Structure formats: structure tokens, C-alpha cells
Amino acid sequence: xxxxxxxxxxxxxxxxxxxxxxxxxxxxxxxxxxxxxxxxxxxxxxxxxxxxxxxxxxxxxxxxxxxxxxxxxxxxxxxxxxxxxxxxxxxxxxxxxxxxxxxxxxxxxxxxxxxxxxxxxxxxxxxxxxxxxxxxxxxxxxxxxxxxxxxxxxxxxxxxxxxxxxxxxxxxxxxxxxxxxxxxxxxxxxxxxxxxxxxxxxxxxxxxxxxxxxxxxxxxxxxxxxxxxxxxxxxxxxxxxxxxxxxxxxxxxxxxxxxxxxxxxxxxxxxxxxxxxxxxxxxxxxxxxxxxxxxxxxxxxxxxxxxxxxxxxxxxxxxxxxxxxxxxxxxxxxxxxxxxxxxxxxxxxxxxxxxxxxxxxxxxxxxxxxxxxxxxxxxxxxxxxxxxxxxxxxxxxxxxxxxxxxxxxxxxxxxxxxxxxxxxxxxxxxxxxxxxxxxxxxxxxxxxxxxxxxxxxxxxxxxxxxxxxxxxxxxxxxxxxxxxxxxxxxxxxxxxxxxxxxxxxxxxxxxxxxxxxxxxxxxxxxxxxxxxxxxxxxxxxxxxxxxxxxxxxxxxxxxxxxxxxxxxxxxxxxxxxxxxxxxxxxxxxxxxx
Amino acid sequence: xxxxxxxxxxxxxxxxxxxxxxxxxxxxxxxxxxxxxxxxxxxxxxxxxxxxxxxxxxxxxxxxxxxxxxxxxxxxxxxxxxxxxxxxxxxxxxxxxxxxxxxxxxxxxxxxxxxxxxxxxxxxxxxxxxxxxxxxxxxxxxxxxxxxxxxxxxxxxxxxxxxxxxxxxxxxxxxxxxxxxxxxxxxxxxxxxxxxxxxxxxxxxxxxxxxxxxxxxxxxxxxxxxxxxxxxxxxxxxxxxxxxxxxxxxxxxxxxxxxxxxxxxxxxxxxxxxxxxxxxxxxxxxxxxxxxxxxxxxxxxxxxxxxxxxxxxxxxxxxxxxxxxxxxxxxxxxxxxxxxxxx
Lengths: 593, 343
Description:
The structure holds two protein chains of two kinds.
Chain A: E1 26-27, E2 34-37, E3 47-48, E4 55-56, E5 61-64, E6 73-74, E7 79-87, E8 97-104, H1 124-133, H2 146-149, E9 159-163, H3 173-180, H4 182-196, E10 200-206, H5 210-223, E11 228-233, H6 242-250, E12 265-269, H7 270-282, E13 288-295, E14 301-306, H8 311-317, E15 324-329, E16 336-337, E17 351-356, H9 374-378, H10 385-393, H11 397-402, H12 413-417, H13 424-488, H14 495-504, H15 509-515, H16 523-552, H17 563-589
Parallel strand pairs in A: 1-14, 9-10, 9-12, 10-11, 13-17
Antiparallel strand pairs in A: 2-8, 3-5, 4-7, 5-6, 7-8, 13-14, 15-16, 15-17
Chain B: H1 15-37, H2 40-62, H3 67-71, H4 75-86, H5 93-108, H6 121-132, E1 140-141, H7 153-162, H8 171-174, E2 175-176, H9 179-188, H10 193-197, H11 210-226, H12 233-252, H13 260-264, H14 269-276, H15 287-307, H16 314-331
Antiparallel strand pairs in B: 1-2
């Protein structure tokens, strides 16, 4: 029997899993349209490689990974690209993002799949490449591109942890996946183990999922997987957090800002392992996932759902009930309220909960903090949430950082237990984003200052170069004039005097001409000088003209602006003024680098 | 509509429930109080409660805060009860009203109300009374069976509201100093501990009757611990410090220094350990900080009891340690997940 470790705190909310885990995984019906965001993963947004009106085959790449940290996006079924534009996405901000809208043609015609009978024959680079092109990302919620996590680092990886804990209430997608597709999860784990050169594989499953535990154990035995162990871990929220599960299984605490691989452990969700297997073995990219549909629905169930399926169409298949006030993506502890039921299912959508007032009553009135420290008692990061709350509230951000604000994993256990009903985790999210905004602001100001300084120095340089050029030109012109004059007036007693004089003279042709002996066939040289003079005048005139124009430049077509346009212009002007202000402040605060 | 941000579920716990549980935990002690000293304490408790709720409402109104949710939090009631249990039960009504009013208005609301007061309001109320009205604060009821002239309930009521006693009875005839105070006075008169403790006002461990009330509070404290409302740190560290300090002195000179158990069951030691020092608002939040805080309070309580000029030390020890709480908290921040060895 393996010794398990504990992590500090944790809570035992009602699990509410039996509603949705009693029925097998169902195939979600093909929706009328699929709305597929190009940014479903950590890293750079994928770049659309199809055009409106183009037909895409099932599994065809429609968004290519951009840059190092990115992932591919595929057509979940065959159909026509109807639009590539901004659509509401499954993100709490409510800000629309670039999506490809695909109208399925019902043929479900696959693109060419690069299946592989024996993945061990492939090079590791090839395997990682295939995973990247198959759009395999962490399905536990982090949606981090998996190929990036599958490098054997400079540190030896001893343990690969497969996360099947699924600690969040309501969610049962991993439970059902493990019950029904255990063998394929383990095959995926073998690929991961090989890529990481890891010794053992530990599969952590919370002990409230006996069916999944048994299925996985049976699959380990049947598949003859060596050094692979299914371990029942105590049911406690947030025991399914990667850091918490690693702690429970190995005793290792992965601090904030530390990579678990530096400590010899890598962790993947069971769903990710399954997707990795489908991608390598069958050449099937990540175009669908298991989604739990539960809450205020008639028959809660898990659905194998195509990425991009609008939430409303998915929920309808579980029997939408009246009284639904909104949709939560994820669990009730860390999930997000979706801004629109038209948003498409994405790779991180593990669960859709139809929320109603009965299931999720409105928040109770907030009372002051009485420092009872129930929050500190349950905090898995071992923080002092009551202190962080105080600092966040007072916008004392430096102090909040001192008290390890960024170690907070936002599990919400503190908010859950707070007897004063303070939305603690909201305060921490707020403080974090304030700090990020400050840092971004500072960066922008620094960049602006640098740009400004560079411009100054460039203008200085240009001015100098221009002056030098001009001086050189004059010198050359005068030298030429002198030469010609010297040739023309060689009999003159002291020709040097004139030239020496003239070189000292300011750049004034008339004066130069004045010093020249008149009426003695100097027309040519005079003309020469006058030409030079006219060039100068012309340049001056051009400069003056340009200046006058610059001063006179006015926005065009401003005659008949709508009030909305005017408002927009005013807003832009205000923003620019603010940026200038920020840049100015930054330069004043930091006069030198 | 549910909230807009996760978590969308919360544990059905409330400040009001916590406070109610603390009030409940006081009941065994109160029952024993009534048993040994008569129902006067119930009158004091009621008076204090009414004053507290009225002052709370007034202050909330003056501060433009919603009245109903704060009145329902039961915190004012708890302050009232703790103060009432700390002052003599046969106190004139105005004493109770002044003490409670001060506790709620000045030491709670002027500092920002619930959650913001640096000092335990009940103990501030007590301190104000004992400094302003020392004579009234030393008239403790003699336990039942010992009084030369037993007072009926109506006699007690008459005294509380009209300061009148039947016939020509003097207040001194029906009251006494506390067992702690008596011990101190007798020791000053060169008495020996053993001889003093043979006086009829002493029982098995400490004062007759009052030792049982203390036991009642101990029982309530254990209930609070079992209900996970208080952590073990403060009561354990406080009682241990008091026990060890008293024990050391007692070993040095048993004739002049009372035994540790006497200190445990005298005065407000049990009330302080489980109900007063554990007030979350005015005590540290870190485990280590709580130990330091309770250690200081235990030491100060003993020193004030033995060397100080006041009958008991718990109130002033609490207030003195309350001052140190922000510092203690800042100094005792525990290491966080994954960063234990490094810091």
C-alpha cells in the first residue's frame, strides 16, 4: 500500500456528481453550425488558413499554430467555412474573439489521417510534431499545448502523474472517460512516459469514483503496463489541482513559480492522455471532447461533443428546463459564467451547468471580515486569505505580493467557507489583474519613453547630417566658384584676397558677388553663385511651405460627422492624450535609465 | 440569479451562526451562575443585551449602515453577555448601561464596527467601569448558603433599579470581594495560603460557587472547540502559561502563592481562555501568533493578579495583548505551500 500525503486545507462541498454519471457517454448530435475560436489554448492564437466559402474536411487544419507556444485548430466535421470573424466565445470577459464558423455538410468526410500502427517507431520529435499539429492541449482546464510539456528536461523526470481526480462538484467527464476508455488513456500515458523518459506512472483518482478506479485498474492489468499504478486519493476539493495531486501522490510540493519538472514530476489530465493516443495512433486531431451537461436540465449526461458546438444546442440535448438563468462552464467552484449561450464548446470545456436560482441562489449580503481564519484553515496554498483580502481591498498591492498573492490558485475554497460571504477570490483576481495592468502600463511607458528618446536622437542626428551636408555642399560650391574666379581673373594683383574673404563670408550670394570685381567678365562665376543662392532660397521656401502645411493640416472630411463618430474621435484623442501623459510621467519619474 | 463569479456555491455558515454558538456555549456557565448566586445575573444579562442592541442600532444609524443585517449578526449580544458576566451581578442598572454603551459605541463602532475594533469591546467596557467606579465593581454577591441575609429576587431587582435594600441592610452585608481579591488582601495582611483557603468563601479548588461557574465555562469552551469555532491554540497556551507560571511560584513558596488550579478556576481565567481571548477580531490569525498572544496574556494575567492592584488580570492582560496583535501577525506569517525549507 502506497503512503499518501496530505495537503493543507481543502473543503468538502456536495459533489453533485451522481446526476450525470449514471448514463454512458452519448454522441452529441451534429449542430447546425460550429463556432470554433482560433484561440483555445495557452500561447499564440492560431492563424486561420482557410477562407470564407472554402470547404473543409473533418480533421483538416483550419488554424495553424503561430510561433513556438501555440496549437492547431481543426475542422470538427466536413463543411463550409461560413465566416471568419469576431464571435462571442466561452470566456467570462464577454469580449468576442476571432472564430471560424463552419456549416457542417452532414457528410462527416475525413481529411487524410496519418495513422500510425507503431508509435515507438517514430522519433520523439516526430511525435511531438504530430501532437502539436493535432492540437492536443491540456484538457484539465489549463489548455497548455501538450507537446511543450513533453520534453525530457535537464532534470530527470521520475514520475508521470495522470490526473483523474476530478475534484470539482458536478463534473463527471473524466469519470466516464476512465470508465469507458481506460485502455486508450493508458496507451496515451505510455507515449507520454516515453517522451519524458519517466520511470513510473501514477494515476490519481478520487475515491468517490470506484467504477473509474476499477476500470483503470483492470486496464492496467490487461494492458500489461509495468510501473503504472492506479491510486485512489481522498475526495477533497481541490485535490484535483495539479499541485495538490502531485503533493498527495509523491509528497512533493511544487511552489508557485516552480516547474514540477524541475522536481522530477510531470502531470497530465487523463483526457489529454486519451487525446494524445487518438492523435498518434489514429491521426485524429482534437476535434471533440467529453462534456458533462448537468444542472437545471432534464437528463444530465456526458456528451462526446464537437469543438465549436454552440452551448445552447448542446444543452438542448440534455433537455433544457425553464428557470435557467445562465450557463456555467466548468464546475461551481472555479467555473465561469458564459456571456452567451451561442459560444462554442472549446477544448477546455469539461462541463456545462445550466444554472438556476434553486441550484445557485443569489449571493448573500456581505458582512465585514471578522478574521475567523476559516479561509486560512482551508487554503491549499497555505496563504493567509484574510490578510490578502485586507491588502487587496486597500489596493495595497505591494503588501499583497509580499503575502504571496501570486501563490493563490484561485480554487475558491476561501470564498466557499467565508461566514461573512466575502467573495474573497474575486478580490485576489482583482489584485492580480491590477498588478498585471500596472506592470503592463509600466512596460508601455518604458517603451514610449525609449521610442521618444530614440526619435529625439534620430532627429538630432538628421539635423546634424543635414547641416553637415549643406556645409559640404556650400564649401564645394564656393571652392568651385573660387576656382573659376581664379581662372577668369588671373591677372588680378591679389586674387587670394577675394577668395579668402569670400570663404569667410556668410552664406549670402549678394555679398559674395559684391566683393567680386564687377563688369570684368565674371558672369559665369556670378551665375554659378547665384544658382547656388537660388537653390538655398528654394530649399528655404520648401521648408517654410512644409511648415506652413504642417500647421495648416486639418482632419479631412470632418464637416458632417455623426455624433457617434465625434464621440469616437474624442475618445481616441483622450486615449492618445492619456498615453502621452503616461509616457511623460514615466520619463519624469525615471529621468535616466 | 446566481453570482457572476465563481465559486457559485458557498457553505451555509454565517457570522450570526458563529456568534449564536458562542452565546450557546456560555449557557452552562450562566445556569451554574444562577444556581449559586441567584437570578440577579439574568437581569444584568438582559439589561446589557438591551443596551447593546439599542446602542448598536443607534451607532449603525449614525454611521449610515444597514441596521438589520448587522443586528442579526449577534456580535453585540455576545459583547453584552461577556461584559455582564465580568461585572458583579448586583450592580446598579446604570453601571451595566454605561459599560455596555461604552463598549459598543466607543470601542466598537468608533473604530469601524464589526471586524475593525482593535480591542475586545467587552474588556474595554470592563476596564472603563473598574477604573471609573471601583467601589461598585467590588460588590460581588455572596454565594448561596453563605450570605448572612439571603436576598430575594425582588430585593435584588430593587437594588439593581433603585439601589435600595430591604430594611437597613448595608450592601457590604450581602456582598463580598472576589475570592481572588480576598486572597490578595489576606496575603497582604500576612496570612498563609492554607489558612486563607479554609475561609468559608473557598470551595474545592477556588471560590465557592465561582469555581463551578468557571467549570461551566470550561465545558462551553470544549463545545466551541468541538464545533470548530475556536482553535486549540489560544485556550491551551493561555491555560498552560497560567498553570506553569502559577506552578513555579507555588513550588517556590506554597505559603504565599496559590496553586495553579486555584488560578485556573478563579476569576475570569476560563471565560478569558475560551471566550474573550479567542475573539477572532482582536486576536492573531496565525497559529504561532495565537500561541505567542495567549502566552503573553497568561503571563500578564498572573502578574497582574499577584502583583497588580486590580482584583483580576484577565481584562488588562487581554487589552495589553490586543495592542500587540498586528505586530504578532506580521511577525508570524507562516511559510506557504512549497516554500517551507527556503524561508
